[in-house]
Amino acid sequence: MAVNMGQDGMVGGDRHGGSYRTTRLSINLNKIALLRNQRDVGYPSVVAAGRTVLEAGADGLTVHPRPDGRHIRHQDVYDLHRLVAMWGSGVELNIEGNPFDTMLPLTLDVLPDQATLVPDAPDANTSDAGWDIDTDGAKLEPAIKQLKDHGIRVSLFMEADPATVAKAASVGADRVELYTGPYAGAFATDRHAAVLSRYADAAAAADQAGLGVNAGHDLTLENTPALKAAIPFIDEVSIGHAFTADALWIGLPAAVAAYRASLRK
Known about the structure:
Elements: E1 3-5, E2 11-13, E3 24-28, H1 30-36, H2 46-55, E4 60-63, H3 74-87, E5 92-97, H4 103-110, E6 114-117, H5 133-149, E7 153-158, E8 175-179, H6 181-186, H7 192-208, E9 212-216, H8 224-230, E10 236-239, H9 241-250, H10 252-262
Parallel strand pairs: 3-4, 3-10, 4-5, 5-6, 6-7, 7-8, 8-9, 9-10
Antiparallel strand pairs: 1-2
């Protein structure tokens, strides 16, 4: 896919298939929970943070409960599900995790709007690789079917590989979430245009296979606009680490406004 530098250094390109759409902003609350867990005093409240960002205009909440409970705990998931259910108006809850640890039974109990399946090991520091459908597809299919049978949209965390990303459709996924760590690492370097072109091609391949396209990991106020410009049909981004860091300086509501603006540039 040809990628061109546009106004203000933005990267744009020829679009394959998907049309421009408003991209939903889901705020990942893991880092709020991590801060809370440093002391046994119950604050900052994950639910209060969720309420604040929704009041500020976020489109949804993302949580990634890990088996060791180092940040989001199971009770947080239930509490946030109640918050989102009370909110209505199209706000969504997205639960991320490896379906082969404790994530699947929790998700089937809570019934969120979306489940994002990631291949993390239990002791992983963060999500840093996507699924290999050739290797993992057969064991993913039953989990995906269970989730979809309960009305849950399923997204698979995938590398931005145009040759393989569309394989997510073959195991029943509804969407892919492009792992944007490598994109963030290349941002503002001489590799930026080439890496962004690969992401645009991967998104186009997913779109042509009938998959929705989400994106997440290391997205910031600086690098999100170029990604959106190159992939105008991104359905959703989930942002947590950089969002929380920005909110330390400008506050949660202002951070929501800033990230929403970054998706409209």
